[in-house]
From TrEMBL:
This is GNAT family N-acetyltransferase. Pfam families: Acetyltransf_1. The lineage of its organism: Bacteria, Bacillati, Bacillota, Clostridia, Eubacteriales. One of its GO terms (molecular function) is acyltransferase activity, transferring groups other than amino-acyl groups. It comes from Proteinivorax hydrogeniformans. It comes from the Bacteria. Residues 158-289 form the N-acetyltransferase domain.
Length: 289
């Protein structure tokens, strides 16, 4: 059984191991990551909150950085399947209940693709990836780049914003609507101005049946910012066909992999992505007391 104990300092090996074993922070230089972790600890000291460590048989699994709002983030030292298995097989939920005076909500982000499912730990956000180089199936779906007037016609930005704000608030139950709107405006709206993003009409028999919004992450990776089959065309088997023809389309553009984010409560979309070959590359969980 894991033990949650108070530490006065962070083990020096934790910085290197946690950074090396997580792609979540790999876009951040190591020194910046170390500074980020130290800032989390300074926050604890400033607010007279404890630094909590999760140990299993004297092995450090990670640290919990909590906030004054009783919300915490669990940073794992290692993200391999053995650590996840130790968490799965342990009575972690009971141990967290013992800290109910400190923690109401706990977030865990892991790059282990193996699902970590306990009663009160729910996957709320998944990053998934797929190698598109070997897909050659064709269903006749075409992707046409949209001009500005066509984007205005086919893409409802207000509805997209409303849905995204709702998803943010489902992901974080203490986030206010104004905070969710601010998050959307900070992280999503700027993507529209990037040179490496394009919006396409999903076409079947010369009719636009949906929208695909892509942007380039790097020279080998394309990211799905948004994909939608219009309501009047749903339930006709287009979902899987669009996915497979999209793989060929992205591959023909010169990219090897395709990534996306999906909210955990969108179970129908998660199942579609899994059926068409996507694998988890990052999973964010939420524990709610």
């Amino acid at each position: 059984m894991p033990k949650i104990i108070e530490h006065t300092s962070i083990e020096e090996s934790f910085y290197d191991e946690s950074y090396k074993n997580s792609t979540f922070f790999q876009g951040m230089p190591f020194e910046k990551y170390k500074e980020h972790v130290d800032e989390r600890k300074k926050y604890l000291e400033k607010n007279k909150l404890p630094l909590l460590a999760i140990n299993h048989e004297d092995e450090l699994l990670g640290y919990i950085f909590i906030s004054a709002r009783k919300v915490g983030d669990l940073y794992l030292k290692n993200h391999d399947s053995s650590i996840i298995q130790k968490l799965k097989n342990s009575n972690l939920e009971y141990t967290l209940k013992e800290k109910s005076n400190l923690i109401d909500i706990l977030y865990l982000t892991t790059t282990c693709s193996e699902k970590f499912e306990l009663e009160r730990f729910k996957p709320i956000n998944l990053r998934m990836g797929k190698d598109v180089a070997d897909d050659s199936v064709s269903y006749g779906i075409e992707f046409k780049e949209l001009c500005n007037s066509e984007m205005d016609k086919y893409f409802d930005l207000d509805a997209f914003k409303k849905a995204t704000v709702r998803d943010y608030m489902l992901e974080d139950p203490i986030m206010s609507e104004s905070e969710a709107v601010a998050k959307f405006e900070k992280h999503v709206l700027p993507v529209f101005k990037l040179d490496n993003q394009k919006m396409y009409g999903v076409c079947w028999n010369n009719e636009v049946i949906g929208i695909l919004w892509l942007y380039e992450e790097d020279s080998e990776t394309m990211f799905i910012a948004y994909i939608e089959i219009f309501k009047e065309f749903r339930g006709q088997g287009f979902g899987k066909k669009v996915m497979y023809d999209m793989f060929s389309f992205v591959n023909n553009l010169g990219y090897k992999t395709l990534h996306l984010h999906v909210f955990g409560h969108n179970e129908k979309a998660v199942k579609l992505y899994e059926k068409t070959g996507f694998k988890n590359t990052l999973i964010r969980y939420r524990y709610t007391r």
